[in-house]
Design brief:
By secondary structure, the chain is mainly beta. It is built from 1 helix and 10 strands; from the N terminus they run E-E-E-E-E-H-E-E-E-E-E. It has a domain of 84 residues: Elongation Factor Tu (Ef-tu), domain 3, CATH 2.40.30. Strand 8 and strand 9 form a beta hairpin. The longest helix has 5 residues. It is globular.
């Protein structure tokens, strides 16, 4: 398995009032976050698997009681400075869709290449979670798993742009 370390750097904006003299300007504090994959996506025959590093298998205790899991993963195939710099796209790669900011769609190019998939859990055994499907490639690094909790993971009054509706 390839080891991948992801570092996030956040710059915190510091409100300085309406007018600040150059000498009084403070530099924003930068914070780094190191994120290490817990496993990877494996596609074997017609099976979709989330294979965790063995040291994380104890974290799967009880997951088999949930019907769905949110899989947080890294778009490692897009990890270039150029791809991270793209801020507007035609959603779904369809030129007929209007140009849209990456924070207003689910484009695989973005400053932080975090992917999120809601997956139906088929089985949990040892350090492997079998899911019905996932929209990630073979070998994609998995960052975290969170059970889908109806009532907590619910939104009412949802609206979406026309292009995002069912085809």
């Amino acid at each position: 398995m390839i080891r991948l370390t992801i570092t996030f750097v956040l710059a915190a904006a510091i409100p300085l009032g309406n007018v600040v003299a150059a000498d009084d300007a403070q530099q924003p504090a930068a914070t780094e976050f190191n994120v290490h994959p817990i496993g990877h996506v494996k596609k074997a025959d017609d099976r979709m698997l989330i294979v965790l590093d063995k040291k994380y298998r104890d974290g799967l205790l009880g997951l088999e009681q949930w019907s769905h899991v949110q899989v947080i993963w890294w778009f490692d195939k897009n990890d270039t400075p150029q791809q991270r710099g793209i801020l507007q796209v035609h959603p779904r790669g369809d030129q007929n869709n209007p140009v849209t900011g990456v924070f207003a769609c689910r484009a695989p190019v973005r400053p932080n290449l975090i992917g999120l998939s809601l997956c139906k859990v088929l089985a949990v055994k040892d350090n492997v979670v079998e899911v019905q499907t996932i929209d990630a490639f073979e070998g994609t690094p998995v960052l975290d798993l969170k059970p889908f909790a109806p009532g907590q993971d619910l939104a009412s009054g949802v609206k979406v742009p026309k292009w995002a509706g069912p085809k």
